[in-house]
Structures are given as C-alpha cells and as structure tokens.
Amino acid sequence: MGVGSEFSVDNSRRDVCNRGCDPSIGLDGVSPMSTIPQRIASAFAVLCGRYGDVTEMANDREQSRQSLYREAQQVADAVDGTAARARIDDLQRQLADQHAEVQALQERLRHAAEITPDKQDEFATVAQAEGVSLSVARRLLRVVQGSQSTPSVPTLGRATLQAGRRAGALLGVLDEAARPEVKQAVADEIFSAADRS
Fold first, then answer.
1. In angstroms, rounded to a whole number, what is the distance separating the alpha carbons of residues 150 and 140?
2. CB-based burial of residue 120 (10 Å sphere; 0-12 exposed, 13-18 middle, 19+ buried)?
3. Rounded Cα–Cα distance for residues 39 and 54 (Å)
4. What is the CB neighbour count within 10 angstroms for residue 16?
C-alpha cells in the first residue's frame, strides 16, 4: 500500500464537499440565502431565458430548479408590489382600528371619576349626612368602584367620625359669626336631656 492508496484524492471543486456533507448547508448549519443579484438572475433565467437556462443555472449553483422558480416568483412579487400594497393596507387598517379604540377610551376617560381614598371618605360622609347607613353606603360604593377593594364599614365609620369632628369645630366658628345676623330661628327638633325619645 502506498501513501495515496489509503485516502482518496479530492478532485471536486473547492466549494463542494464530497465527504457526505450536504453542500446546500452552510458552515453555520443553515441554508445560505441567495443574494438579491442572484434572485434577479434567477428571475431573468426563468422569465427571459432560453430552454435549458434554468437547468444550467440550477446545476451551476447546486440548487434545485424549483428553488430558482421560487426566487423568480419572489422577485416578480417584489416588482409587482401587490404583496407590499396588501401589507400596507393591512397595517393602515390596524392603525385605524387602534386609533378608533384610543378615541373611545379617551372619551370614556373624560367621563370617568377617580375614586381615591379621600373620595371614598367623602362618599361615606355625604351618605351619612343624607341619612344613609354606612353598610348601604359601602354597597353603593362597591357598585361605583367595581372590582376595586371597598373599605370596610368600620373604616368608613372612622372617616365619617373624623369629618364630623372637623365639621363640628367649623360649625362652632360659623355659629358665633352667624348668631348676630339671625332674626328668627326655629328649632327642628327639641329634646330634653332626660328623655330623648
């Protein structure tokens, strides 16, 4: 056995692997993409070439004829612009839908009221002042707030008690200022200290 008899000599072109590798797969493990000039050349061979040009080009590139036909179709679609126009139309429709949705949400926001903890306290205080019990005020607040957590009845009660204390101090000052201006006054209810019934 000589030196050359153990190994076969690779007489193929430099870019072809004859050791069981697939030449259509690049070093990174994926198929190499054809460049734009290659696609245009494929389109020329398919659309304007003579009989046998597609087969010859496919053999030269070591590709299937079908891949050349696909490249030619991609070029024709790009030149025609139908696919691009359809994509633009679709994007414009999506934009119009989003714009309409934003406008609807902004309109809803104009009519919305943010229910902060201070607003909850105000709601409970006004409800109590109007004679509504705190448990009913809480249920009404839950309807207005929706899924947000609603303060408990004792929490609302503490808020109305604090509001009453603040209002009581203010009423004392207002009574002193208004008393000289009163010409005639009628008490709404009269209770004696001994009997409040």
1. 10
2. buried
3. 12
4. 10
Which residue's structure tokens are 């604090």?
A: 162
- CA dist 19 and 67 (Å) reads 24
33: left (phi over 0), alpha (psi -120 to 50) or beta: beta
Token representation of residue 156 = 């609302």
Specify the pTM.
0.38
**Residues in CB range of 151: below 8 A, 6 or more apart:** 117, 120, 124, 138, 141, 159
How far is residue 111's CA from residue 135's CA, in Å, rounded to a whole number? 27
Instruction: Render each residue's pLDDT in the chain as its tens digit; 197 residues.
Output: 444 445 444 454 554 444 444 444 444 443 455 687 888 888 888 888 899 999 999 999 898 999 889 888 888 878 887 878 888 999 999 999 999 999 999 999 888 877 888 888 888 989 988 899 999 999 988 888 876 788 889 999 999 999 888 888 888 888 888 888 887 777 666 555 555 55
Do 18 and 47 meet the contact criterion of CB atoms below 8 Å apart? no
Amino acid at 5: S
CA angle 14–16–19, rounded 5-degree value: 115
